[in-house]
Write a structure and sequence with these properties.
The protein has helices spanning about 1-10, 25-35, 50-55, 75-85, 100-115, 125-135, 145-150, 165-175, 190-200, 230-245, 260-265, 280-295, and strands at about 160-165, 180-185, 205-210, 215-220, 250-255, 270-275. With about 300 residues, the chain is of the alpha/beta class.
Length: about 300
Amino acid sequence: MRELHDRLAALGLVSTGDETDDFGDGTLAVVEAFQRSRGLPITGDVDETTWARLLEAGWRLGQRLLYLTHPNLRGDDVAELQVRLAQLGFNPGRIDGVFGKLLEEALSDFQRNCALEPSATLTRATLLELVRMTSNGATRSLVNDARDMAGFDVEPSGPLVVCGHTPLAARLARACAESMDVTMLSDDSPVDVAAYANANAAAAVISVQTLKQIEGVHLHYWASYLSHSRRGEQLASAIAAALTRSQQFPRVEVTGMALPILRETKMTTLHIEHGVGSDEALEELAQVIALVLAEVFHRQP
């Protein structure tokens, strides 16, 4: 409990009214504030994902060597490295705080341009050069955002992956199969789904979850405190617009989040939450989403 308080306080989230060994209302409030800032479900529970993101938030650029490993290094220091390279025109991929292959290539290219050994490792010499070139305080656009807006990145051509152990997921997979190549993953974890989707260059991933406590439909696309998926936002907005024309779905929300399934997948991914509905409502929901997906990916039935 003391470590939890210390890590939150280091981020400026100080619990008022609670002792360092207590988890009271003050601690609950700052945990929720952290979850809100990181695009996580605001539960107040320090679950596995919240704790992992809290550990990542403690890293500062220069505190450790950064390089490609398996599993990938993760943290705010990785995110800052991605931002600094993107500001200089080197494409590290999505700003997600995960040291992947694109970041390795961008770092190596930066070192080569600075006449440093292209080791793809953030050494002290590399860090000094990077800070020197990006520390003038000027606001700069990110090259990965520019590429996203211009449509330069290659569109994946693999199957549509639908995942989730819900009646809607099965209906959605059947509806989409009329116009697209579909892979259905029912019981896989978000990490396993992401691994499959990334390995097979999936065109998109649609994750579905039933939540009894919500009404209507919630559509979530990738967004962090540093960047977001424009294509994911556009797809979610297109589905939301189609759903609001139906009498079955009076409440539709679109929100950027950093859920594991959204963070781990490299292609456009949506996480869809819906309340308990009738078979008729779920079938209509599946048909509407399938139609929008077919239109967006130019695969008319």
